[in-house]
Amino acid sequence: MKPDRLLSVALCLGLLTLLSFVAGSGCRTAPPTRLTEGDTTPERSIILREGDVIHVAFPGAPNLNATQQIRRDGKITMSQVGDVKAIGLTPGELEKEILKLYESQLVTKEVVVSLDSSSFYVFVTGAVLHPGKVTAVRPLTALEAIMEAGGSDPNRANLKAVVVIRHEEKEVRNYTLDLKPALEGKKTQPFYLHPSDIVHVPEKFSWF
Which of 88, 116, 144 is where one domain is finished? Predict the structure, then answer.
């Protein structure tokens, strides 16, 4: 076989190998991340911060119920027990701390802390109409953040593989979400964002 013929065959084989690799792996959509209860419940996994407004409810003693804003010193003031540190805790952790302080006064040993409002930022990038910073004044889902950014670009967006990038202490964690069923009106689990989360909407794969 002539050298130029051999070169043509080699190039064809190399191109076919490359196309096979990309089609078999590079174009594959990552499977959605398995979500936990904390990911799909707005208040349970959120870390309380300065300025957050919380409601503290005592099912067995409603006279103790209170709505408080976390002060700059990171505390709230509760009747009969005084200041309680709230900053840096999740609502569930704060429930336990408040229960310890009131335990001797309660017949029903139960306290429920809920987040009424929380102002924080998230960032939306990729195939959306208005990428950038989004301000949340309440618990916000990934889909809602995309809508706040003008919605996804219908010609480019791949909503089956939306990525949420989250900094957790000393590591970065990525979540892959399939948001397409929600936009089609199907029942899905919401994914609630944390402050400074980055929501990236990737583009659909195209050879051209």
Answer: 116
CB 141 within 8 A of CB 128: no
Mark whether 93 and 127 lie in a shared domain. Answer: no
Residues of the chain with pLDDT below 70 are: 1-30, 35-45, 206-208
Q: How far is CA 161 from CA 50, 132, 187, 204, in A?
A: 33, 19, 18, 10
Q: Are 96 and 84 in contact (CB under 8 A)?
A: no
Q: Is residue 10 part of a domain?
A: no
Angle at 12 between CA 10 and CA 17, to 5 degrees: 95
In terms of domains, do 112 and 64 share one?
Answer: yes
pLDDT digits (tens, 9 = 90+) for 124-145: 999 999 999 999 887 889 999 9
Regarding whether 57 and 93 lie in a shared domain, the answer is yes
